[in-house]
Amino acid sequence: MLKVDKIDVFYGNIQALKGVSLEVNEGEIVTLIGANGAGKSTLLKTLSGLLKPKNGTIQYLGDSIGGKAAQGIVKAGISHVPEGRRVFANMTVEENLELGAFLRKDSKEIHKDIEKVYETFPRLKERRKQLSGTLSGGEQQMLAMGRAIMARPKLLLLDEPSMGLAPLMVKTIFQIIEEINSEGTTVLLVEQNAHMALSIANRAYVIETGRVTVSGTAAELQASEEIKKAYLGGH
């Protein structure tokens, strides 16, 4: 579904990604793990059109999307839930969800999808008229994910969905990621909580200082002594 081949991405003169290649197959959950500043968020931003690769290619469903405008990428079926959630604080929960569907014209279906988001996230239904800025961190994360789903993506890019959340809420968010995936959305997940990420992923890539250093099935990475030491707290 997605094929990234040897991309280089720069911030000014600083090279953030160095020859990164990876693949995501339809229906998978693929996770990217690595330390802070390794280039994981940069990769997602490049995939969603917020950054342009200097070299290399990005193919999505057979089309080249490297350097394409973000709006066109959303239209093609890729939605990005950025790190730090970025909900529109002074709009209600429901208005945020409606914004997620801004490229769509099928108002009946949009209404159905809002109801579906409320089924997936009952907490949002209770707060539908509340201003998003007044929600807890976990509720804002649910809203950010719900808003992304409103675009009916084929591929969902999730950047640090568990960041700053209480352990119980982390569990809930990961269950919902699995649910979204089982309903047919492919997921590329960036996550500091490598333990949780590997527990739901099919495959994983480790990114260190802008390079992919290890890749394999989630089970292989969970079993690797090196990965355990570096990312799984040694156990």
Characterize this entry briefly.
The chain is built from 10 helices and 10 strands. With 235 residues, the chain is α/β, with parallel strands linked by helices.
Helix and strand arrangement:
Layout: E1 2-11, E2 14-24, E3 29-33, H1 40-47, E4 55-60, E5 63-64, H2 70-76, E6 78-81, H3 93-100, H4 107-120, H5 122-126, H6 137-149, E7 155-159, H7 167-182, E8 186-190, H8 194-200, E9 203-208, E10 211-217, H9 218-223, H10 225-231
Parallel strand pairs: 3-8, 3-9, 6-7, 7-8
Antiparallel strand pairs: 1-2, 1-4, 4-5, 9-10
Helix pairs in contact: 3-6
Defining traits:
globular; alpha/beta; 235 residues; Rossmann fold; 10 helices; 4-stranded antiparallel beta sheet
Structure description:
The protein is 39% helix and 26% strand. The chain is α/β, with parallel strands linked by helices. The protein has a domain at 2-83 and 152-231: 3-Layer(aba) Sandwich (Rossmann fold). It has a six-stranded mixed β-sheet, sandwiched between helices. α3 runs parallel beside α6 (137-149). The protein is globular and about 45 Å long.
Q: Which CATH architecture of one domain?
A: 3-Layer(aba) Sandwich
Strands, count: 10
Strand ordering within the main sheet:
6-7-8-3-9-10
Number of helices: 10
> For the record, what CATH class of one domain applies?
Alpha Beta
Order of helices and strands: EEEHEEHEHHHHEHEHEEHH
**Low-confidence segments:** none
Our measurement of the CA-to-CA distance between the termini, rounded to an integer number of angstroms, reads: 33 Å
- Large-scale geometry: globular
Largest sheet: 6 strands, mixed
Question: What is the average of the pLDDT values?
Answer: 93
What is the share of helical residues?
25-40%
Mind telling me the C-alpha Rg?
17 Å
CATH topology of one domain: Rossmann fold
The CATH homologous superfamily of one domain corresponds to P-loop containing nucleotide triphosphate hydrolases
Q: Roughly what fraction of the amino acids lie in strands?
A: 25-35%
Structural class: alpha/beta
